[in-house]
Amino acid sequence: MNTRLGFVILAILVFFTLPAQSETGAHSQYSGQENRDIKSLSPADIDKLQRCSVWGLAKAAELNGVPGPAHLLELKDEIPLSQDQVGAITKIYESMRAQAIEQGEAHIRLERELEQGFRNQTITEETLKRKLGQISTSRGQLRYTHLVTHLKTPELLSTEQIARYNALRGYSDNPCALPPEGHDLARWRAHNNCP
C-alpha cells in the first residue's frame, strides 16, 4: 500500500472516530447562572453584600499593608491590641458595617432593577446608561466605605503592630514581624538581626 493512501485512510478513520461536537457549539461559562434571581450577582455575592462580608473591595489597602478593622479585631489577641485600641477600632468597624450594609442593599436593588429591565425587555439604551452609572456609583461608594476605614486604623497602631498584622495575614516574609511561638523573643530577634 502506498504511503499516501495509508495517510488518507488514517485521516478518515480519525475523523469518524472523533466524538461529534454539539451543533450549538461549546457550553457557555455562564451555563447554570440563568436561574439566578439576579444574573450578575451570585447568591454568595448577595449574602456578602447584605452582611458586609468580604467582597474584595478593600484589597488596595489590605494588600499594601494598611490594616482593616474587621481583621484587626479578629487578631486582637495575637497582635496584641490594648483595650483602648479595641474600643476605638470597634467604633470604626461598627460605623463602617452599618453604612456598608445599607449601601450593599442599595447595590443589590440597582442590580435587580437592571435585571428586570432585561427580563421584561423594557430597557433602552438611555435607561441602560443611567442604570449602569448608578451601579458604578453604588459600587464606588461601597468600596470607599470599606477603604476609608483602612485609612483610620494605622494612626491607632504602632509600627510593630502593623508589621505583626501583616505577618499574621500572610503578607510578610519578615521573620522579625512574627517570631514563632515558644522561641525566646530576644534570642530570635538577635539571630534574625531584628531592630
Task: Walk me through the structure.
It is a single chain. The chain is mainly alpha-helical and 195 residues long. The chain is built from eight helices and no strands. Helix 2 packs across helix 5 and helix 5 (83-119) packs antiparallel against helix 6 (125-152). It starts with a helix and ends with a helix. 15% of the residues are buried. The mean pLDDT is 85.
Task: Tell me the number of strands.
Answer: 0
What do the pLDDT scores average to?
A: 85
Task: Give me the strand/helix succession.
Answer: HHHHHHHH
Strand content: under 5%
Weakly predicted, low-confidence segments: none
Helix content: 55-70%
Radius of gyration: 27 Å
> What would you call the shape?
flat
Distance between the termini: 81 Å
Number of domains: 1
SSE-based structural type: mainly alpha
What's this entry about, in short?
By secondary structure, this protein is mainly α. The chain has eight helices and no strands.
List the keywords:
195 residues; mainly alpha; flat
Describe the secondary-structure layout.
Blueprint: H1 3-17, H2 43-51, H3 59-62, H4 69-74, H5 83-119, H6 125-152, H7 159-168, H8 185-191
Helix pairs in contact: 2-5, 5-6
